[in-house]
Amino acid sequence: MSIAVRFQQVSRHYGAVRAVDDLNLEIAEGEFFALLGPSGSGKTTCLRLIAGFEQPTAGHIEIFGERAEGVPPYLRNVNTVFQDYALFPHLNVIDNVAFGLMVRGVDAKARRKQAEEALELVKLSGFGDRKPGQLSGGQRQRVALARALINRPKVLLLDEPLGALDLKLREQMQDELKSLQKSLNITFVFVTHDQGEALSMADRVAVFNHGKIMQAGTPEDIYQRPHSRFVADFVGSSNLLPPVLVKSVGGPERWASLRPEALSIAPEGQPERARGKVAALTYLGASVRIALDVGGERLTMVLPARGTLPAVGEDVPLHWDDDALHVMEDEK
Ligand code: ADP
Ligand code: MG
């Protein structure tokens, strides 16, 4: 498998701001790769470096094995779907989608044909004569996607493309983007600050903080085996156990994470790992979230609402599987 994008110790500093800081990264051809992280963590800067709108202040970038330094954006075989779509309001949909072809001197008939094909890909056939102002947010998003796909780039960069859509539309577009990516076999580099979106869509995820990658791996790796408190915290509501507590339940004296759904009440007669005092119960519909005091720490357990539930104030024996307690490598 070839490497689509490689960062070798890449930095992009703006004065004292280290937007991207000594980053190493490899994205394989055909991968759906998500850059996940809080606002200001360097995700957009990374995309702009790949696109060629920014140059590294240190390090090297390769795109399909070739040094990207000095290669202008339009020669990179990379296209971008911008966060705000950046459509031209005075041009109709066809002309927006075919804009790049027009700049390159492709004749009007060929432009129209290719634009119509691109619109078909994003399920917007028949909308070619409308102006962006006559479209919904979701439709504008599709136009931006069609424009980016029209010349079949080898790498598509998407900067929080679904951020402006409401939840239902967002979920629909997540499914569509995913199947489009697989059917076109284009490498997607997808920026989001939404951990659920990254975990559900990507083949691999890189979690960013302060211009650095805290951890990169499959969604399962990131979710089940976070290396640091930052990743455990950012990726989902996990219990973080301090070293003293981990030691008291038979683990090493290190930080560890324990997912709320991995905790349960030990059946009678079964060995217990710890005891917890129920502090609060919150009904969530199909499940119940239970706050527990365990050795002075507040832990969360999630149980199915249909089972027998403990009462507030009750002292309960707790169970989890051997591999559920995950000791974090990067935390001392
Ligand atoms: P993200 O996309 O993860 O929100 P960005 O890559 O946009 O983060 O920004 C990372 C950091 O770099 C932020 O602190 C941001 O303010 C800073 N930054 C980005 N672009 C510039 C610029 N052109 N000039 C100065 N600082 C910038
Ligand atoms: Mg951004």
Overview of this structure, please?
This protein is an alpha+beta fold and 332 residues long. The protein has 2 domains: 3-233, P-loop containing nucleotide triphosphate hydrolases (Rossmann fold, 3-Layer(aba) Sandwich); 237-327, OB fold (Dihydrolipoamide Acetyltransferase, E2P), CATH 2.40.50.140. It has helices at residues 43-51, 93-97, 99-103, 108-121, 137-149, 167-184, 195-201, 219-224, 229-235, 243-248, and strands spanning 3-14, 17-28, 32-36, 58-63, 66-67, 78-81, 155-159, 187-192, 204-209, 212-217, 239-241, 256-258, 264-265, 274-283, 287-294, 297-304, 315-319, 326-327. It has a 6-stranded mixed sheet, sandwiched between helices. Helix 4 (108-121) packs across helix 5 (137-149). It is elongated and about 80 Å long. The two termini are 36 Å apart. The chain binds adenosine-5'-diphosphate and magnesium ion. Magnesium ion binds next to helix 1.
